[in-house]
Amino acid sequence: MNERPAKRGFAARPGDAEGWIRSADGPARRANDASGFTARLTIDVTLALRGRIKVAAFRRGVTVADMLRDLLAREFPDDPGETS
Questions:
Q1: Three-state secondary structure call for residue 78
Q2: Integer Cα distance of 48 and 58 in angstroms
Q3: How far are the Cα atoms of 3, 37, 59, 68 from residue 34, in angstroms, in the given order?
Q4: Do the Cβ atoms of 14 and 20 come closer than 8 Å?
Q5: 20-60 pLDDT, tens per residue?
Q6: pTM (2 decimals)?
Q7: Which of 6, 36, 45, 64 could hold 49 in an S-S bridge, CB 3.0 to 4.6 Å?
């Protein structure tokens, strides 16, 4: 019988998703963030809100991720007495 050849994609994803998203050997984006990113946050937003966030980040010349990290850092500053 005729067997279909295995499909080859344009690029294969590495087995480690975190390594695929953020390379460990890349330079740190922020001088004050020596610990790196240790958690991922996923939220659901409407398509309209997502669009407004992307446009705001573009106008500011930053990535959405950096803009939202800064927003969250302002809204939830480190509390010296709080333990993680």
A1: coil
A2: 15
A3: 52, 9, 27, 18
A4: yes
A5: 666 555 555 554 554 677 788 899 999 999 999 999 999 99
A6: 0.51
A7: 45
